[in-house]
Design goal:
The complex is a heterodimer of chains A (113) and B (114). Chain A has no helices and twelve strands. Chain A has 113 residues and is mainly beta. In chain A, strands 2, 5, 6, 10, 11 and 12 form a six-stranded mixed beta sheet that branches. In chain A, 37% of the residues are buried. The model of chain A has no long low-confidence stretch (mean pLDDT 92). In chain B, 0% of the residues lie in helices and 56% in strands. The chains are: A mainly beta (113), B mainly beta (114). The interface between A and B is medium-sized, with 26 and 27 residues.
Chain lengths: 113, 114
C-alpha cells in the first residue's frame, strides 16, 4: 500500500529565504505525486504534479519539486519565500488504477517579514 | 478560480437535525469525491462517484448519506451527527479515474455539530 510522510508539521522562514517542505513516499509501484496548497478558509489547490515525464516539476507561484526515486522523496522548494506563501501544504500519492489519493498530514508554512 | 462550488460554506447543526451539503462542478468531469478534513489528521476519503455510480465507500457511518443525481452534482445528507463529525467537508472532481488526472477541490463546508 502506498503512503506519504511529511516531515515537519510546521515550517517557519523569513521573507526572501529558501522554502523546503519535505515529502517522502512509500509505494511498491511507480507513483504519481502531487503537491496541493490550502489557504485559510479555502479548499485545496494543485501546485504541481509528477507523472513520470520529468523528474523536476515546476508549478505555480514559483514552486518546484524534484522526484528522487533513490530517496523516495518529492520535496517542494521555492528559492525566495513571499508573505503570500503562508498556507498549509499537502503532499499526496496515487498509484495503479485507483481513486484513492493518499494525503500526508500537511505542513503549515509561516513566513515572517 | 475554482470550477467546484460548495454550499453552504458554514453550517451549525444539532445532533438531531437533518441537513444536506451540496457540491457542483462546472468542469465537465465524470468523477466526484467527498473528503473529511479534521484538525491534525490527513484528509479522509469518504465517497467516490464515477458516472453517477458510487465506486467507493470508505467505511463511512450511515449517518452520512451521499447522493449523485448527475455527474455535475453531489450531495451529502447528514442526520443524527455526533460532535466528532465537526470538520471541513471537501468536495472534489476529476475528469476520469486515470491516475494522472488532477482532482479539483471546492472551498469546503465547515460543519460544527453541537
Amino acid at each position: 500500500a502506498q503512503s506519504v510522510t511529511q516531515l515537519g508539521s510546521h515550517v517557519s522562514v523569513s521573507e526572501g529565504a529558501l522554502v523546503l517542505l519535505r515529502c517522502n513516499y512509500s509505494s511498491s509501484v511507480p507513483p504519481y505525486l502531487f503537491w496541493y496548497v490550502q489557504y485559510p478558509n479555502q479548499g485545496l489547490q494543485l501546485l504541481l504534479k509528477y507523472t513520470s515525464a520529468a523528474t523536476l516539476v515546476k508549478g505555480i507561484n514559483g514552486f518546484e519539486a524534484e522526484f528522487k526515486k533513490s530517496e523516495t522523496s518529492f520535496h517542494l522548494t521555492k528559492p525566495s519565500a513571499h508573505m503570500s506563501d503562508a498556507a498549509e501544504y499537502f503532499c499526496a500519492v496515487i498509484t495503479g488504477n485507483t481513486d484513492k489519493l493518499i494525503f500526508g498530514t500537511g505542513t503549515r508554512l509561516q513566513v515572517f517579514p | 478560480e475554482t470550477g467546484v462550488t460548495q454550499t453552504p460554506r458554514h453550517l451549525v447543526m444539532g445532533m438531531t437535525n437533518k441537513k444536506s451539503l451540496k457540491c457542483e462542478q462546472h468542469l465537465g468531469h465524470n468523477a466526484m469525491y467527498w473528503y473529511k478534513q479534521s484538525a491534525k489528521k490527513p484528509l479522509e476519503l469518504m465517497f467516490v462517484y464515477n458516472f453517477k455510480e458510487q465506486t467507493e465507500n470508505n467505511s463511512v457511518p450511515s449517518r452520512f448519506s451521499p447522493e449523485c443525481p448527475n455527474s455535475s452534482h453531489l450531495f451529502l445528507h447528514l442526520h443524527t451527527l455526533q460532535p466528532e463529525d465537526s470538520a471541513l467537508y471537501l468536495c472534489a472532481s476529476r475528469r476520469d479515474r486515470g491516475t494522472q488526472e488532477t482532482q479539483y477541490f471546492g472551498p469546503g463546508t465547515r460543519l460544527l455539530v453541537l
